[in-house]
């Protein structure tokens, strides 16, 4: 494989980066709308020459072939020799995707149907606890990819959540974590979802033991515990009867559309959950078929590459202008940083260019009253994605979003005093969702998943393993630091 900095497009981009001048182009030339999401990249520091070279770079990195390889189940997770098929989780029932000479779609459809049955039963108050009373509260025990997606999802779609049930999360190992959540719950009417791809995560297993003791009716185990895991054997050994599988070709952080999100399916109902899948699938189709110049995930990824590798901006600030996206950033932090926080390439060699950015941010309105000063006048280089919802266009929140975009990109002076000068020059993407719905949420998830994949392809890294995390766990174990 040719080194990245020897590629023609890379050399051209290095040259442009030395001479480019920040220009503010016409918004109309930089607006791409697909799948109910519009990307306005007029706030980025790019011109046609730079965009053409970025597209050329994608072609030189064989992006098209890599997309096809992922979608059809080639083992692109090369270090673990696994396919990467989170897109199969939202594929139509009649699709055929072969893994080890077996079509995986019937297994996926079977799990979807089980999710439908379980969620309907609980919502209809037909799932009974040990004393015969219907379940009133569902608690997800899980961490990382087994919690961040469902937590974000259920809060994002809170307006659709059934109000006759309570939904709760227990994740970190804080000694009070379990008791704080269960203090107001009744063991007779509480159902635990033990969510862990590996079923070996100590935080999750420790909380499971607490839950077992708290329910204290082992003979009625099945009425109070559901397991979701790729390690079905281990869950069976631990006594679980209701087990929803995920598979080794779904990464933990890519499991938003899998049974890992069962708690959201119960909360919003299977029909709405299916709309999330439909939205994600339509973005998948856009990603595989659209020309790169109009392809939202590809454009987001390439603009990020320009900022990271050529303008030396090591972070991406994500500001959201709707409370529905309040928990998006922690979810995205794992998705992006666990995927692309790498410095060894696919061939096992150390690389000499920057890779995944530090992801940070939160609600845009709150930013103005906390860290906005640093955005206006600080010394760190920053790039930003601003995300808003079109249905708020007449509301202050969207006026604020667009005003932030203007100030951050163009800066300004308020009087002669240098203390009042704002340089601007922050490269900004403005992403506008037509509305906030399960469908657009699914599309947004897929958009960022594929953006991260594209960047991994260009950087020649495997975005689907996490060897650093595994090594750290092993170092801690060997040294007996947590006994
Ligand atoms: O330790 C990191 C990690 O393995 C993540 O990749 C994962 O999402 C999280 O822990 C939880 O893992 P599991 O779903 O196997 O409990």
From TrEMBL:
PROSITE patterns: P_GLUCOSE_ISOMERASE_1, P_GLUCOSE_ISOMERASE_2, P_GLUCOSE_ISOMERASE_3. Its EC number is 5.3.1.9. GO terms for biological process: gluconeogenesis; glucose 6-phosphate metabolic process; glycolytic process. Coiled coil: none annotated. It catalyses: alpha-D-glucose 6-phosphate = beta-D-fructose 6-phosphate. It is found in: Cytoplasm. PANTHER family: GLUCOSE-6-PHOSPHATE ISOMERASE. NCBIfam families: PRK00179.1 (NF001211). This is Glucose-6-phosphate isomerase. It comes from Fluoribacter dumoffii.
């Amino acid at each position: 494989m040719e080194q990245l900095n020897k590629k023609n497009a890379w050399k051209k981009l290095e040259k442009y980066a030395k001479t480019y001048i920040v220009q503010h182009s016409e918004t109309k030339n930089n607006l791409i709308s697909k799948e109910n999401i519009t990307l306005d990249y007029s706030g980025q520091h790019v011109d046609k020459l730079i965009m053409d070279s970025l597209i050329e770079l994608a072609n030189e990195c064989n992006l098209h072939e890599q997309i096809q390889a992922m979608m059809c189940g080639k083992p692109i997770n090369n270090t673990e020799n696994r396919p990467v098929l989170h897109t199969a989780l939202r594929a139509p029932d009649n699709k055929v995707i072969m893994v080890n000479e077996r079509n995986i779609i019937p297994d996926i459809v079977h799990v979807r149907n089980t999710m439908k049955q379980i969620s309907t039963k609980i919502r209809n108050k037909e799932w009974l606890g040990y004393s015969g009373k219907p379940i009133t509260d569902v608690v997800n025990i899980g961490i990382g990819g087994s919690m961040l997606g469902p937590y974000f999802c259920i809060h994002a779609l809170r307006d659709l959540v059934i109000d006759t049930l309570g939904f709760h999360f227990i994740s970190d190992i804080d000694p009070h974590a379990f008791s704080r959540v269960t203090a107001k719950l009744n063991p007779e009417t509480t159902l635990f979802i033990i969510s862990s791809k590996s079923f070996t995560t100590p935080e999750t297993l420790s909380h499971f033991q607490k839950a077992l003791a708290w329910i204290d009716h082992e003979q009625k185990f099945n009425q109070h515990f559901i397991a979701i895991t790729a390690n079905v054997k281990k869950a069976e050994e631990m006594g679980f009867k209701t087990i929803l599988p995920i598979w080794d070709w779904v990464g933990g952080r890519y499991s938003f559309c899998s049974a890992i999100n069962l708690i959201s399916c119960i909360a919003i109902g299977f029909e709405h959950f299916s709309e999330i899948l439909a939205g994600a699938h339509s973005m998948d189709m856009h990603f595989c078929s659209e020309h790169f110049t109009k392809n939202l995930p590809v454009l987001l990824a390439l603009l990020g590459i320009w900022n990271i590798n050529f303008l030396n901006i090591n972070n991406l600030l994500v500001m959201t202008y709707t409370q529905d996206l309040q928990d998006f950033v922690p979810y995205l932090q794992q998705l992006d940083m666990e995927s692309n926080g790498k410095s060894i390439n696919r061939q096992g060699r150390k690389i000499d260019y920057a890779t995944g950015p530090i992801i940070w941010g939160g609600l845009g309105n709150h930013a103005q009253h906390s860290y906005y000063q640093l955005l206006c006048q600080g010394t760190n280089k920053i790039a930003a994605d601003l995300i808003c919802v079109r249905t708020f266009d007449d509301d202050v929140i969207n006026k604020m979003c667009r005003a932030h975009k203007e100030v951050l990109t163009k800066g300004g002076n308020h009087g002669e005093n240098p203390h009042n000068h704002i340089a601007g020059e922050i490269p900004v993407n403005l992403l506008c969702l037509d509305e906030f719905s399960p469908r657009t949420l699914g599309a947004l998830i897929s958009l960022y998943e594929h953006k991260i994949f594209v960047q991994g392809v260009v950087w020649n890294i495997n975005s689907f393993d996490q060897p650093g995390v595994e090594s750290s766990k092993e170092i801690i174990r060997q040294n007996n630091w947590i006994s």
